[in-house]
Amino acid sequence: MTMFKSVLKYILLAGLLNTMPSAYAEQRNEYWRQKVSLFELLPISSEDIVMLGNSITDGGEWTELLGRDNIKNRGISADVISGVEERLDQVTGGHPDKIFLLIGINDISHGHSAAELARRYERLLKRIVADSPNTKIYIQSVMPINNSFGRYRNLAGKEKVVTQLNTLLKELAPTYNAVWIDLWPALADSNGRLRKDFTNDGLHLTGKGYKAWAETILPFIDQ
Question: What is the average per-residue pLDDT within 13-19?
Answer without folding.
Answer: 36
